[in-house]
Amino acid sequence: MTALAELKRHLRPGQVYRRKELARWSNAVDRHVRQLVSEGRLEKVANGIYMAPRKTRFGLAPAEPEKLVEAFLGDDRFLIVSPNAYNGLGVGTTQLHNVPVVYNHKRHGRFKLDGREYDFRMRTTVPAELSEEVLLVDLLHNLDRLPEDRSEVLPRALERARTMDRKRLARAVRDFGSARAERLLTPVLEDA
Q1: Is there a contact between 79 and 130 (Cβ–Cβ < 8 Å)?
Q2: Which CATH architecture best describes the domain 3-61?
Q3: Are 37 and 55 in contact (CB under 8 A)?
Q4: Is 123 helix (H, G, I), strand (E, B) or coil?
Q5: Would you say the pTM of this structure is higher than 0.70?
Q6: Domain ranges of the chain
Q7: Could you give the angle at the alpha carbon of 66 between the alpha carbons of 63 and 69, nearest 5°?
């Protein structure tokens, strides 16, 4: 079996690969990657990151954001938050946002992956999953970045905080919150 055939054997549709991962199965990774890209077996989605295209009945499917971000960071400790999720809290946010935020331990800045922009923000701690409490803490942290009127959103957000599980909210503030979120939520948490 040729080295190129060996590399092809390891490719799975929809998977995202870093160049160094592909190098494990190839003795001439750059040449093989160029060949696979020209054949359409791989697609370059960012510098040093490639995806094996997955065909659907509607055409080629984009890479899953989680797989893309994990390959880009080389780490699975991150949380993707779409500011659109704030709308589900019922605090008066209604805007739609195009740029998801990726909280992580390694990168900071805006990066384009597979044609889509992501806002990477480094944090010392990153929750394993997005809960309503974490989302509310994040909303309070990003209050000045929202296009909505802060004076209308803030009272609703604090009222919403009063309906949440206090222990989970306190944990979200302690583990993920900024100084602003902690200052705003301390009166709510002390009322318990």
Answers
A1: yes
A2: Orthogonal Bundle (1.10)
A3: no
A4: coil
A5: yes
A6: 3-61, 65-190
A7: 85
